[in-house]
Amino acid sequence: MKWIKITCPIYLSIPRKTKKDKNITLNMNWYRNAYFHESNFVKQQFKDIIEEKLLWIKIPEPYGLEMVLYYKRNCDLDNFDAIISKFLNDALKEIGSISDDNVNVFQYKSCRVWGKDTENPRMEINIIKL
C-alpha cells in the first residue's frame, strides 16, 4: 500500500567562498572518498530537503521504500541506492517521522531504474506502509 511519494535529488552542491561551488553526486564513489566534514555537510543538506517535504508527518511503522532512479548519464544503481536510502532513513529518524531505522521498523526496500532524464535526474521514492 503506497503511503507517500517524495522526490530526492541525486546531485547536490557545496558552496565555497573562494572557489567555484563543488557539485556532489550522491553515490558510493563520492561517499567513499569524501572528507568527514564534506559528507556531514551534504547529509545535513539532504536532511533539510527531506524535512521541508515531510515535516510533521508521522510515517506508519513498519514501512518500506520503493525507489526509482532517473539518471543523467550511465551509472551504477547500487551506488545511488545505498547512499540515498541511508541518508533518507537517517533524516526520517532525525526529524521524528519514524521512531528508528532498524529492521523492526524499516523492513523493505526495492530499487529500479526507470530511465534517462538529463533535465531532471532524481530518485523518486514511495514510502509504503507494510
Structural notes for this entry:
It is a single chain. The chain is 33% helix and 34% strand. The chain has a domain at 53-120. With 130 residues, the chain is α+β, with helices and mostly antiparallel strands. The model has no long low-confidence stretch (mean pLDDT 93). A hairpin with a 7-residue loop joins strand 2 and strand 3 (22-25). It has helices at 28-33, 36-54, 77-94, and strands at 2-9, 11-14, 22-25, 63-71, 106-116, 122-129. Helix 2 crosses helix 3 (77-94). The strands form 2 sheets. Strands 1-6-4-5 form a 4-stranded mixed beta sheet, with helices on one face. The protein is globular and about 45 Å long.
Strand and helix map with partners:
Layout: E1 2-9, E2 11-14, E3 22-25, H1 28-33, H2 36-54, E4 63-71, H3 77-94, E5 106-116, E6 122-129
Parallel strand pairs: 4-5
Antiparallel strand pairs: 1-6, 2-3, 4-6
Helix pairs in contact: 2-3
Order of strands across the main sheet:
1-6-4-5
Number of H- or I-type helical stretches: 3
Tell me the helix content: 25-40%
Q: Main β-sheet: number of strands, strand sense, barrel status? A: 4 strands, mixed
Describe the oligomeric state of these chains in a short phrase: single chain
| Unreliable stretches covering 5 or more consecutive residues | none
Q: What is the N-to-C succession of helices and strands?
A: EEEHHEHEE
Measure the end-to-end span.
Answer: 7 Å
Instruction: Choose one word for the global shape.
Output: globular
As a percent range, the share of strand residues is 25-35%
Classify the secondary structure makeup into a structural class. Answer: alpha+beta
Average pLDDT reading: 93
Radius of gyration: 15 Å
The counted number of beta strands is 6
